[in-house]
Specification:
By secondary structure, the protein is mainly beta. It is built from two helices and seven strands. It has helices at residues 3-6, 10-15; strands at residues 23-27, 43-47, 56-61, 64-71, 77-79, 87-88, 93-102. A seven-stranded antiparallel beta sheet has the order 1-2-7-3-4-5-6, with no helix packed on it. Strand 5 (77-79) and strand 6 form a beta hairpin. The longest helix has 6 residues, at 10-15. The relative contact order is 0.24.
Length: 105
């Protein structure tokens, strides 16, 4: 049985408005993003839409998925958790914007 079909909050996940084919669930598989308040095994609803300043965005940078905060000024860039340096928008491939966090207790 997959994690998604047996998730205790599946009913809630199904009620979250999203555009089919333009959103997906991403499971946090390590503690690498705890600085952003995320725990291992949290699920993030990722939606592909235009970026707004301060969005939490999942990007691919040199083939590695990284959760970042988008900043539009002074130059469009993504800020991963420290100690990583800002990633210019042109160096990252946007996977989507985090629209919902689901945490199992």
């Amino acid at each position: 049985m997959s994690v998604l079909t047996s998730h205790p909050l599946l009913g809630l996940l199904q009620e979250i408005p999203h555009q089919p084919g333009r959103s997906f669930l991403h499971r946090v598989d390590s503690d690498q993003w705890k600085e952003l308040g995320l725990l291992k095994n949290d699920h993030l609803l990722i939606e592909f839409r235009p970026l707004k300043n301060q969005d939490l965005a999942l990007v691919l940078h040199y083939g590695q998925a990284t959760l970042t905060r988008y900043h539009h000024l002074p130059k469009p860039s993504f800020l991963p958790p420290s100690p990583s340096k800002p990633i210019p928008e042109s160096d990252a491939v946007l996977q989507g914007v985090v629209t919902c966090l689901v945490r199992s207790m």
